[in-house]
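Entry:
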Amino acid sequence: MIKLATYISFFLLVVPVWAGGEHGYTYLALGDSLPFGMNVTLLPPYSDIKPSPAQFTGYPESVADIDRLLGMNQLINASCPGETSGSFLVPSTPDNGCNSPHYQPPAPTIPPFKSTYGLHVSYTGSQMAFAATQLETNKNIKLVTLSIGADDILLNLTALADCTTTACADGILTPILQTYGANLATILGNIRALYSGKLILLTYYSPSPALNPVAQALNSAMTAVAAQFPNITIANGYAPFQTASAPFNGDPCQAGLLVRLPPGPYTVTPCDVHPSPLGRSILSIAVELAALAAK
């Protein structure tokens, strides 16, 4: 683990990525709680102090910090915790906590994140509409990253967990992924209609060995849709987590890649599903490598 952390620190210090424009934001980050930088220990029931958006750090901030040291890149992070592919396009579509409450039994329900705690950048409409405005008006943008789809699954995770057969799980997962694929195609089509630069999709890691098949299915759907569009680069967020977790029985929680939860009456698992600083660094490296490979 020490060697891995040392390698990551060295990589983040010495590897340049892409040159940005001299004026305006050059990096637009889109998606859900992963790029937002969700840390549930800052929220009820673990904290009674209302956090500010600046207290949450996602992988886009880690990526942008490198370029900022080199005087290159400025970030605008429009991601929203709990955003689904549907709510990305239409805010009234069911989501997992962005525009609607996030249910997390046995812990208390968290109110809509966007209106209660705020985002890294303020906007009132859909994330898609905000992204379109940025891409239309700011021609300095050189990179767009997107992480979307996990909350499409998480909205239905309880039903999936209740399944005892593969047929049951497939019956739930297949229509979810079909809808996700259609929404993702719309999102990517809208972005590509306005922007021809570097566009990177980050595949999802699995937060536990039991969810490996679900993460693989989601990532397969993502990459299949991305292949229909020109010059979209896939950043592999799945494989590095698997590699780093291998010495720990494949468990990213034991490997220190996920946020550790404090003990208490509402803590039913040792870790949350979101990445720790170490996990976030691994994801930022995946994006860095993809950016280097992108045309």
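The two ends are 33 Å apart (CA to CA).
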